[in-house]
Specification:
Length: 258
């Protein structure tokens, strides 16, 4: 699904006055794009996702999905995956996934087949009856991904979904998400503080400025897949993006987290 931001503004009203969070956001996202959004804390990255999902409203401008306003778009067309897995602790893996299923008219067999298909998709065969407390952090996030994907959303929003995971698990899940993206051809948008993650996943990297958040630069990531994080071409994009944040620095001598 395609997505457009047209002169989008967002202001929060507080007792102490209004705070401008987003200013004049203009962005075109094509069907099948994988967009990475990076920027300092408080620049409005997560607010952008809330505007797309309908969890919040714009102060000015408009967000358009496939030629329609956000509230004219079916809720199942936009899926959201958060940093926390947000599973029901008393439900098994298969029951947590089933909870996300919006089409209640399906037969028991159709539901069972869909759930099994998505458990296979995330590689958790054999854990169907497991409770969340019996799963690792990465496994819980896989269940969360399956619960969101079961409705086949045209747009998938990922709000720092790997931020709380160890490096090894994070890389594995990044690869899993890429496989899902390549298979389902959906439009994905990830908010992240990890520049390497942004380059590894994205067809484009959107760099935002401190608040009020504006789009400072959009980088087209012209790298073949699978991408190699240690390659010279990968380092080229890393240095260009770091320069947007820190000016003329040696990107090899600082951590790749902002």
């Amino acid at each position: 699904m395609s997505l457009s931001f047209k002169n989008v503004r967002k202001t929060f009203s507080l007792k102490t006055g209004d705070i401008e969070v987003l200013r004049d956001i203009n962005l075109e996202i094509n069907d099948g794009d994988f967009i990475s959004i990076v920027g300092p804390s408080g620049c409005g990255k997560s607010t952008l996702l809330k505007l797309i999902s309908g969890l919040d409203t714009v102060t000015g401008g408009e967000v358009i999905i496939n030629g329609k306003g956000v509230y004219e778009t079916a809720a199942t067309e936009v899926g959201v995956i958060f940093q926390e897995s947000r599973l029901f602790p008393w439900k098994t893996v298969e029951k947590n996934i089933e909870f996300g299923l919006a089409d209640k008219s399906l037969s028991k067999k159709q539901k069972k087949d869909l759930i099994a298909q998505h458990i296979n998709l995330i590689g958790l065969n054999g854990f169907e009856k497991a409770l969340p407390k019996q799963l690792s952090g990465g496994m819980k996030q896989r269940v969360s991904i399956a619960r969101t994907l079961i409705n086949k959303p045209g747009i998938l929003l990922l709000d720092e979904p790997f931020g709380a995971l160890d490096a090894f698990t994070k890389i594995n899940l990044q690869n899993e998400v890429l496989k899902i993206w390549e298979k389902q051809k959906s439009t994905m948008i990830i908010v992240t503080h990890d520049i390497d993650e942004a380059i590894f996943l994205g067809t484009k990297v959107v760099v935002m400025s401190p608040k009020p958040g504006i789009i400072q630069k959009v980088f087209d990531i012209d790298l073949p897949r699978p991408r190699v994080r240690t390659s010279d071409d990968f380092a080229y994009y890393r240095k260009k993006i770091y320069k947007e944040f820190f000016g003329n620095i040696d990107a090899n001598n600082i951590e790749y987290i902002i």
